[in-house]
Specification:
single chain; 323 residues; mainly alpha
């Protein structure tokens, strides 16, 4: 218990440090004292405008995106009994991405519907993957193979849309890679309700996630409707992934890396994994985004590139370990 609480506290401190660094660091460095003064008593100075109009909404968006993707990955790894499950790797983010890019390019006047449309796309992709992988039960390798196939297929459709509508591609490229450069208070307003609802539903679902880890037969013996639980929890994971995709694009590997680190430190009880994944996900994305801003300053990398550099080797390590 003490180790779990200490780990959760360490994650919270790391998330706070990542948030503060995100406010401080950039082309214009601002001291911690100035950040606190600006947040407490904003004025009309340039530094105040940078914090309130650029860095604060970006840090908040990055924190919520990180929490949502980490929770989505943690849920999928339990539901699909696959340590390699991640909304980006198994194609759920691609489903949300195809729906989102269709709205962004084909129906820009309905951009306010991007999140619910992305959720439908993510849920349809999850159902297709689940059906393709089902054969006398679910096996981890089949989930990965089905997810990679679906992700590649949806990625090809996205590429086709971008080619046919090349005159509208500029705003979609950063979104495809996964980035927070265009984050604004509007993005914060979009993701907050989904993040709050997703976190509450994830905490409620922790009991069922613990039961699913026991295996289908044991869970049924304890009175759980396994397929209904899987469907409901997959819907929560899809909602979390879709809300993140709608504001930050196809940002990958957060949902793969974070739950494994949390599980290593707090154990396999999802009552602790859920809050731990949410807080460490915040830290991961805000710190990665800060690094993306500083590595080639004054130029800026999309945070998705940083996550890919870190996440791809981690995925290969897990793949060799599990298969």
């Amino acid at each position: 218990m003490n180790r779990r609480c200490a780990s959760l506290l360490a994650f919270a401190v790391l998330a706070l440090c990542g948030f503060v660094l995100s406010l401080m660091q950039g082309v214009a460095d601002i001291t911690p004292a100035d950040v606190l003064r600006i947040l407490w008593q904003p004025q009309a100075a340039t530094a105040d405008q940078i914090i309130w109009n650029l860095r604060l909404p970006r840090a908040l968006t990055g924190s919520l995106v990180g929490a949502n993707l980490a929770l989505s990955g943690a849920i999928l790894q339990a539901v699909m009994r696959n340590p390699l499950a991640d909304p980006h790797i198994i194609g759920i983010s691609s489903g949300a991405g195809l729906a989102g890019i269709s709205v962004l390019i084909l129906f820009p006047a309905y951009a306010y519907l991007m999140t619910p449309v992305a959720f439908v796309g993510a849920m349809l992709a999850a159902c297709v993957i689940y059906l393709l992988a089902w054969k006398d039960g679910i096996k981890p390798v089949r989930i990965i193979l089905a997810g990679v196939a679906v992700s590649a297929f949806l990625g090809a459709i996205i590429s086709g849309v971008l080619i046919f509508y090349s005159d509208r591609v500029h705003g979609a490229l950063l979104w495809m890679v996964g980035g927070l450069a265009a984050s604004s208070w509007k993005n914060v307003g979009v993701i907050v309700p989904y993040a709050a609802a997703g976190f509450v539903l994830s905490c409620i679902g922790a009991y069922y996630l613990n039961m699913l880890q026991l295996g289908d037969d044991m869970a049924r013996g304890l009175g759980l409707n396994v397929e209904a639980a899987r469907l409901g929890l997959t819907a929560v994971a899809a909602l979390l992934a879709a809300s993140s995709v709608s504001v930050a694009g196809l940002l990958g590997f957060v949902g793969l890396i974070v739950p494994h680190i949390v599980r290593l430190l707090v154990g396999t009880d999802y009552r602790y994994i859920i809050p731990g994944a949410a807080v460490l996900g915040m830290a991961t994305v805000t710190l990665s985004d800060t690094a993306a801003r500083l590595l080639l300053a004054p130029a800026e990398l999309p945070v998705g590139i940083i996550m890919a550099f870190v996440g791809a080797p981690f995925f290969l390590f897990l793949l060799r370990k599990e298969v």
